[in-house]
Amino acid sequence: MKFAFIDEHRGDFTVELMCEVLSVTRSGFYAWRGRPQSPRARRQAALVQQIEAVHRENRCIYGSPRIQKALERQGQKCSVNTVAKLMRSAGVRARTARRFVVRTTDSQHHHPVAPNVLDRQFYPERADSVWVGDITYIPTAEGWLYLAVVLDLFSRRVIGWATADHMRSELVSQALEMALKQRRPAGPLLHHSDRGVQYASGDYQRLLASHGLEVSMSRTGECYDNAVMESFFGTLKQELVHQARYTSRTAAHGSLFEYVEVFYNRQRLHSTLGYRSPVQYEERFG
Known about the structure:
By secondary structure, this protein is an alpha/beta fold. It has two domains: 89 residues, no CATH class; 156 residues, Ribonuclease H-like superfamily/Ribonuclease H (Nucleotidyltransferase, domain 5, 2-Layer Sandwich), CATH 3.30.420.10. Helix content is 45%, strand content 13%. The chain contains twelve helices and five strands. A five-stranded mixed sheet has the order 3-2-1-4-5, sandwiched between helices. Strand 2 and strand 3 form a beta hairpin. The chain starts with a helix and ends with a helix. The mean pLDDT is 89.
């Protein structure tokens, strides 16, 4: 497959350079080019093309397990090991993230806080029985853009979100109002968040109470009490934010809309959901 890679990228790099980097000889490459491809080689070349297409269609963020599942649903039977091997030989890699942290939780306030009713029970049996919320940040050339999100814990679907240039309680209220409008929950519903001042504020608590939502909050310093929300933000940063340079908050908001509403909710294969998207999972099990 090294020779196939060299042949495919001759327009991008010199044969001499690629042979040196891949530790093969030029004479071996040209001898390979002179031979007709075997049926196995043709099958592998076709599979590499499918792998590259799936990789591009999914923002270049899929590793071998998700690519294998996507190929399987296209009718292509192959193992994860085969996909991983072909990805390595073709130089196809999932994007990796840069890491940095900005503190968004201010729990030093005098508002009442709720107990941790959720207690890390992250797998409810039905949709709209447990919602989780949190805030993160998006760097732009204009300064931070803050993002509040509400997830349905059953399907990991983003059901409400809002952005602003501040972290006041209006931000989280807008995200919750979007979730309430979209979902119109009818049964018992638990809302879990951290102990941040935005979630403990009187305005937010009144909004929860007016719709009959039970309140749960993480324990002090226990980020794993809201681990699913933390995982979503980690995914968002790795697959989108850390790959971009936003010139404005407006540009960042538009990028978030496309990622959340088009890609994450409807297309991205989620390992926890049996490699289905949140929308697909709800349609099948919700």
